[in-house]
Amino acid sequence: MEPDLNALAVFTLVAEERNFRAAADRMGVTRSAVSQTIRRLEETLGIALVLRTTRSVSLTEAGEHLYGQVAPALADMRTAIEATGNLRGRPRGQLRLAVSSIAERFLSGPFLATFAEANPEVQIDITVTDEEFDIVAEGYDAGVRLGEVIEQDMIAVPVAGDERQLAVCAPRYIERFGVPSHPSELAAHRCIGWRPAPKVAPYRWEFAEHGKEFSVAVAPEITTNDMALMTKLAVAGAGLTFGMEESFRPFIERGELVPVLESFCPRFAGFYLYYPSRRNVAPKLRAFIDHLRRLG
After folding, report:
1. Pick from 4-13, 15-24, 83-92: least confident
2. What number does CATH give the domain 89-162+270-295?
3. Longest dimension (CA), the chain
């Protein structure tokens, strides 16, 4: 069976938009044209791919499977075409990045600002998120995450050196409640915890002793998904909190926060820019990688 690449491209847009009209608008065609293309593709394959109602569009099991297989391949094709078209010019176009909210050095401003100044034809679109997902399927050019959670089939470029997580609190908290001498004593302290989303258990605080890693499930007095709020609460004396050292560094240097349990907080591989292993890297992404390596 000879694949109809145009039909597969139309199907991918419908799968992304979950809406025939929105897919048609993106392609500059009519809704009827999109519907007919999907119908022909389903007839060719002999199986339903899309479930249509008067209000919504969803994928069948076969549709979900096809989308998962086709979307990365089409993304590779778009990248190859874009790279070919841009070989004679400067890096240009939209560079989409998915960045962890705790990648403090990367998000601090100077690195991105200097890249934007040096590459005025590149529009940087950054989504700050701690969700784990397939950046290729979601249409991102690259992502920034801790090295330990990056898939092995990705190319990874260091953003900075080793990192570590710290437990911290305000001097006024120490004056009132003292500090734990061992992570096992955290249960007796007021803690400010982090969770990625509602109805998800708070993040376990991770430590190491004598080379052996372990985690502690604290019972937070306050829980949030906002690291900035955790820091503000800790500075205000609400309790101990736990996070990346880079996030706390300005507050530690000003004496607003004090590290505790440091001997139980080892360093580990830090953040990496990661992207799919492709032969053709778009000029905009290549320029970004080169910029990162020069400043690193």
Report:
1. 83-92
2. 3.40.190.10
3. 75
